[in-house]
Design a protein that fits this description.
By secondary structure, the chain is α/β, with parallel strands linked by helices. The chain has 13 helices and 13 strands. The chain has a 7-stranded mixed sheet. A 6-stranded mixed sheet has the order 4-5-3-2-1-12.
């Protein structure tokens, strides 16, 4: 199965799909699956733009609305996670995951699904210490603070993800903290010299995500956010690898380096094919409009580890979709091989069990409910997995050729908001909230309360 990986999307779907077509024609293969690592910008209309935390000059519709309204159809199954520049109101509608448009699936604020048996897990958003331990308290209309805090990853989702058994692929927008120490750190600094302070202080990246990487040990981990291509390998087992538990090595500043002001985000055009080898480039300018990773905590209690055989996680971060940038690749081999067949999206039974087990701790206030200890949590997940097997996985469907766990058995894309052109005088106002039938159906399938977007009659 050929899997393409995209860094930040920034609404440039047309260019991304055209780049895939270019690669397919040039290399005589077919891409089966596209994974996008955040800043997707699923903007349906101008009112959605009012819920996206970007400077006014970047509030542009982008390409997504054409796929949402049916003007275009995604040519390849596309799975996305969220970043820190999103129409957060739409992603909240589909908190547990769902179809953003035909053939474009949002993994949710956290989630795990399977494509032809390949397990793909992921976490949306970025890390900020001051919001990490809070509940999901944000409500529309968003103010300046909640428009940002809504995409800050919560401990609730990290704890849920930590209960998974090993996935094949993990997607995040943020980089795992100190991942740069497992690759060519000096090469990274030549491209992004302004990373030096965060690297020296150990603050580059997300502490909870590094905890997940060391706990889950996926074969591949893909990220975006920092707008640079970077690869690393984290070895697991057989003793500690990479940086020690103390301070990371201090890298001396180069007095000859000059930091150049960043170029503005421009309309994305077709880029050259990105090679799988790192290019040594001149200093890549910093974007002053990006929300930087400040105020991160330098230590987060490590997630519980389980005895596992020696293995390694290949890490790859990619750039944003702009000309002459390494924004899209088809690594080989990306996953375990599967028989040639059309990609089929299915729920992961273990993740469904975790969702049921942790529903009682889902909080819509700032005060997060108290979590169970890990042994208790795993016992509850095991119990819920039996429920999932009995009530979903073994359930007979009308289509004998379709698995009971097929996503299409439960969730079908529905337009909840209108496309652009119907906003009238409300164009610059935030939209109303919408109850998404896909979230209603998902909660019904699992027998849990829909606390995301209940209908107005409840």
């Amino acid at each position: 199965m050929k899997v393409a990986i995209q860094g930040c999307c920034h609404g440039a779907l047309d260019a991304i799909y055209q780049q895939i077509k270019l690669l397919e024609d040039r290399n005589d293969y077919q891409v089966d699956l596209l994974l996008i690592c955040g800043d997707f910008q699923a903007v349906r209309n101008h009112r959605d733009l009012q819920c996206m935390a970007v400077p006014q000059k970047y509030r542009q519709l982008g390409d997504f609305y054409k796929y949402y309204t049916g003007e275009k159809t995604a040519p390849v199954l596309t799975i996305v996670i969220g970043g820190n520049h999103e129409a957060s109101n739409y992603f909240w509608e589909l908190y547990y995951g769902g179809w953003l448009a035909p053939n474009i699936y949002f993994l949710g604020h956290a989630g795990c699904i399977q494509v032809n048996g390949v397990r793909i897990a992921g976490a949306s958003g970025i890390f900020k210490d001051h919001d990490f331990h809070q509940g999901h308290h944000e409500r529309m209309p968003y103010d300046n603070g909640s428009m940002r805090s809504i995409y800050h990853i919560r401990e609730y989702n990290i704890r849920r993800l930590s209960l998974l058994s090993k996935p094949d692929i993990f997607l995040s927008h943020d980089w795992p903290q100190s991942i740069e120490q497992y690759g060519d750190t000096q090469g990274l600094l030549r491209k992004k010299p302004f990373f030096r302070q965060d690297i020296n202080s150990g603050n580059l990246g997300s502490p909870p995500l590094m905890g997940l990487l060391q706990t889950l040990r996926p074969d591949w981990w893909f990220s975006a956010h920092l707008h640079v291509r970077f690869e690393a390998v984290v070895k697991h087992g057989g003793g500690e690898q990479g940086p020690s538990e103390g301070d990371p090595p201090v890298i001396a500043a180069n007095p000859d380096e000059i930091v150049i002001s960043d170029d503005d985000v421009d309309e994305c055009t077709i880029a050259r094919e990105a090679t799988l080898t790192s290019e040594v480039r001149t200093t890549t300018p910093q974007n002053p409009d990006e929300i930087t990773l400040d105020n991160e905590e330098e230590f987060v209690e490590s997630l519980p580890r389980h005895v596992a055989p020696q293995s390694e996680t290949k890490f790859l971060a990619l750039d944003k979709c702009l000309p002459r940038r390494a924004f899209l690749e088809v690594p080989h081999p990306t996953t375990v091989s599967t028989e040639p067949q059309s990609p089929v999206l299915a729920y992961d039974p273990e993740w469904l069990a975790i969702t049921r087990a942790f529903q009682q701790y889902f909080t819509t206030t700032r005060q997060q409910a108290t979590y169970p200890d890990e042994p208790t949590a795993r016992t509850r997940v095991a119990t819920e997995l039996e429920w999932v097997e009995e009530n979903i996985a073994r359930k007979v469907t009308n289509d004998s050729a379709k698995s009971p766990l097929s996503v299409d058995n439960c969730q079908v894309f529905v337009q909840t908001a209108p496309g652009p052109g119907n906003e009238g005088n409300a164009q610059f106002q935030q939209p109303p909230w919408y109850t998404n039938p896909q979230t209603v159906a998902f909660c019904s399938m699992l027998g849990i309360e829909n606390r995301i977007n209940p209908s107005s009659s409840t």
